[in-house]
UniProtKB/TrEMBL annotation:
It comes from the Bacteria. The chain crosses the membrane at residues 6-23. GO terms for molecular function: protein transmembrane transporter activity. Pfam families: TatA_B_E (PF02416). One of its GO terms (biological process) is protein transport by the Tat complex. This is Sec-independent protein translocase protein TatA. Belongs to the TatA/E family. InterPro entries: TatA/B/E, TatA/E. It comes from Candidatus Daviesbacteria bacterium RIFCSPHIGHO2_01_FULL_40_11. The keyword ATP-binding does not apply.
Length: 51
């Protein structure tokens, strides 16, 4: 049965991302991810920049 993602899984994913992108690219990657999530929420709520 699926119980969700635990702390160890999150740390493992974070370590892999750090190895792939490196320490210098990580803030840029996080900023882009945050913007993508913000745009996705706007799309689900039906809001756009004109309102």
């Amino acid at each position: 049965m699926f119980r969700g993602i635990g702390l160890i899984e999150i740390l493992l994913i974070a370590a892999v991302i750090l190895l792939i992108f490196g320490g210098r690219k990580l803030p840029e990657f996080a900023r882009g991810l945050g913007e993508a999530i913000k745009e996705l929420r706007k799309a689900f709520n039906g809001k756009n920049d004109k309102e």
